Amino acid sequence: MPLRCGLLGRPQCGKTTVFNAITAAHASMFDAAEAHRATVAIPDGRVQQLVDLYAPAKITPSTMDLVDIPGLEEGATAEGGRGSKLLTHIKEADMLIHVVRCFENGHDPIAAIHDVELIDLELMAADAQTLERKIERICKRARIGDKLIIQESEACQRVLDRLHEGIPARRQDLTDVERAAVFECTLMSLKPVLYVANVSSSQDMDSDAVEALRAFAAAEGSEVVPICGRDEADISELPKEDQAEFLSELGLQELSVERLIHAAYNELGLVDFFTAGPTEVHVWTCRSGCKAPAAAGKIHTDMERGFIRMEVIAYDDLIEHGSEDAVAKAGKLRLEGKEYEIRDGDIVVIRFSPPR
Ligand SMILES: Nc1nc2c(ncn2[C@@H]2O[C@H](COP(=O)(O)OP(=O)(O)OP(=O)(O)O)[C@@H](O)[C@H]2O)c(=O)[nH]1
Ligand SMILES: [Mg+2]
User: What DSSP string describes 237-295?
Assistant: First the structure.
């Protein structure tokens, strides 16, 4: 399952522009009613090195699904409104990429934090409705005196009270009990957020608005990635060989898609591992700390159920020694068991007995 990210933000903050910059998908900026979708291959320089070594028939990178959600206006989340359709896109996302206008648009002053708070209010209003419905639903059983249900209902109520105070769920420091109680509600204000500061030029990457946003984001442990949306969207339309020159002219080293994905991986605690051979080099993604059988399960459920052990080569060791055989001779090929936690860059072979 690829990483699903939803781009959201206020109307005209540059979501579609950023979407185009990241995906080079040329989505129309004038069609504000529908969401655009694209699947982006996650750039990883290590893949090319593996391809050079194994000359595989097929390459499968990790991918990210990106949805450009049309601008959320105030009151959009009121039931039945256009917003409720938009909110389904948000509910489905593993992470929200919140685009914030940090460029002058000729009429409204830049108000980064204010803009973010307005969107949060919409998310919280929808979350509050969801929680109220849940509390109402379980209330009957709570009245009978079911202790666990009473505890669950009280936990939901505490989260709801804090939403009413204006604190998004992701800033509430939820206890395990509260987290479990609201789990099935897929609260939107609980989703991890990555902020994109959409700036006009590379000189503005540390502007007052960006700095204010950084401080705001730091308070909830989120990151801010400044992007020159419009310039990058233009560059992404150029042939690959011309892009570097234009990027450096603008004072940029690389297209921001790499920085963005890096930040998303960091925030979600994701790592990549590889299977590699002459038939295929395949990149797999899992949470850091993921145990070997669960990681094997990403490849095939049989591999998880029938897991015996994992042969592991670290990417750096493979590059240093130049081949699997050389790595083995150097004693760097490891046999790992069920308790092994996958590390970023592991190249693995799964030994398993197919369950009957
Ligand atoms: N100066 C400047 N203008 C930008 C930048 N990014 C977007 N714009 C302009 O802002 C306007 C809105 O951009 P869009 O990408 O359509 O914004 P949006 O958030 O998708 O808008 P809605 O979908 O209608 O909510 C366009 O006129 C863009 O050219 C930027 O980085 N700098
Ligand atoms: Mg748009």
Answer: TS-HHHHHHHHHHTT-SS-HHHHHHHHHHHHHTEEEEEEESSSEEEEEEEETT-BHHHH
